[in-house]
Amino acid sequence: MIDRYWIAFFAAFSCVVGVFDASAGDADPLYRVCVAQCEKTGCVGDRCFPHCKFPSDGASLNRPWYMQEPLYLQWKQWDCQSDCRYDCMVDREKDRAALGHGPVKYHGKWPFKRVYGIQEPVSVALSALNLAMHFHGWLSFFILLYYKLPLKQDKKPYYDYTGLWHIYGLLSMNSWFWSAVFHSRDVDVTEKLDYSSAVALLGYSLILAILRSFTVRDEAARVMVAAPLIAFVTTHILYLNNFKLDYGWNMKVCVVMAVAQLLIWAIWAGVSRHPSRWKLWVVVVGGALAMFLEIYDFPPYEGFVDAHALWHASTIPLTYIWWSFIKDDAELRTSNLFKKVK
Fold first, then answer.
1. Given pLDDT bands bounded at 50, 70 and 90, which one contains residue 1?
2. Which of its termini does the chain have fewer beta carbons within 10 Å around, N or C?
3. pLDDT over 80 (residue 297)
4. May I ask the CATH architecture of the domain 2-20+118-341?
């Protein structure tokens, strides 16, 4: 869970510093001329894009509806504007390299090399690995509870946070799935799904941190804690998707929730003297060190691996350790509750 605190924090931070449509690359007059000519002619040098007969917004000028670009093509291949921007960017970067200049950002993003149409292949692969790690952690947690630890007479686990962690596992996998999709294709809908999933996971993680650290077991008390936070997170997601995708406001919301739950877990680890508290500290410190990968934002090496991709890589072992702590906590509480029953 802790790894997702940093993910949400830096995803929000990246929103602010990385998505504004004004960077050194797209301010280059030669780049602008190249894109403008490509959108008119459909060609960059000797490379032409047949689908440029369709405008980038998906509506065909002076053409009937059945001549518009099919939806499956809109997803499978990049639209005219995106292809023009990409090829013009590639040409300008070659010219800059020949003059001894380093890469610059275009429309808020570093110049990545596409692989089979995937925009950031390394980040996609690492997001998928994070998803796999959460699936492995959740599955091993499930097997531990239902097949290795003692169960109640009604075949339910003694661990009183089982359902909460199941939901957390599903939300984590959902968040990493949309992260992979967003890095493969950065469009409006994938951006909103990625940010919404991250915010939903972050808000739920805050609820879970409060419930576990304060040992809230009564259902009515859990509802009282969760209801206002669920209402706030839901309202925030609706605001981002239906009113305005305000990156600055989203950053503030994510930072507050991330810092709050990080402090809760850190303090609880020291106060409770949990036998596996060292795993909590490893994840907290590891997440703090991974922060520098986002602060030190450097161009992608060979057009593939940038600081953000390395940060994704750093969360993989942290995820393994975090799920290991969750399983240790389940074993400890199950043992204590089972002894009380006996």
1. low
2. C
3. no
4. Up-down Bundle (1.20)
